[in-house]
Amino acid sequence: MNSRPGLFDAALVAPPPAPAPGFRDITFHEQRARTLLNKIPGARPGGMAWTLNPYRGCTHACTYCFARDGHEPLGFDTGEGFNTQVVVKTNAADVLRRELRRGKTGDDWVMVGTSTDCYQRAEGHYRLMPGILRALADHRVKFTTTTKSALLRRDLGLFAEAARVANVLVMTSLGSLDERVWRAFEPGAAPPRARLATIAALRAAGVPAGVLIAPVIPHAGDHPAALDALIDACAEVGAVTVYPDVMRISPGARDWFLRQSAVHLPPHLHQRLAASYANSRSMPASYVREVTAHLHARAALHGLPRWEDYIRDAGRRTSDSTNPRLRDR
């Protein structure tokens, strides 16, 4: 591993252990983290103000992932290196407890796994999330997490315990029901129907669960009928909110994304994506508005609120429940 200054002390990084069964060609770099909670610049009090990432790099290997940019400063390439060189903060739960004892987050929300999926395959080996969830629940911290993995179901009981004492929202990232889209762009993630089953399992356990409709991939997953079917499926399994997001390609991911699309997609589709993203990280604002409005309108037919409205109302519900005069009415 590159030991550039400012990341973490080289002495705190253990030599990579032997690969665990089922992890051929994947290397884990074990790190003793000094801090885990990161403040989001400009975050408003009581809002989404902190991030927490127990892993860097991700075996889901999503070709478009914005977190690829963050792998280069670690000394890894943003293509195959991001998929196979995974940094593991082995002491995550202990560090988190220390920070929470100091009251670091206050009444703010913590976003767990914003850069890479904290339920990627490595979690099956390292099991960092149970300790993290217990720490968050013990300190009654409001938190949300996003995943594309069915492994989250292993910890359903812990999510349910946390949801009984604080605001919790689990978001499943799902931009298409089409398995061709999944195989081409998200080869290591759970299939779309498995992600829907995870939402259903969370709701059955009493845990609020929503869907990050993301990324909507232009030219591949943006047909109106397909988007309608996706929203309908999310409502059917009990999602409480949706958040649409059209694909953006960060500078560190662009070359890898276009190389992979050239290999795995039909030529006409690759050419359209290359034309759309060769000189820009996002689609035109008018396109983004159109797709987002379409998804919100379909969600409204099912009574599904926008994500920001759900979070705002969750805060109000918490305030009401802790106000003795309102609670006893």
TrEMBL record:
Record's keyword annotation contains Cell membrane: no
Cited SUPFAM superfamilies: Radical SAM enzymes
UniProtKB keywords: Iron, Iron-sulfur, Metal-binding
Alphabetical list of InterPro entries matching this protein: MJ0683-like, rSAM, rSAM_sf
A Pfam family annotated for this UniProt entry: Radical_SAM
Residue ranges of every copy of the Radical SAM core domain listed in the record: 53-223
Family matches, as CDD domains: Radical_SAM (cd01335)
Domain of life: Bacteria
Protein name per its UniProtKB record: Radical SAM protein
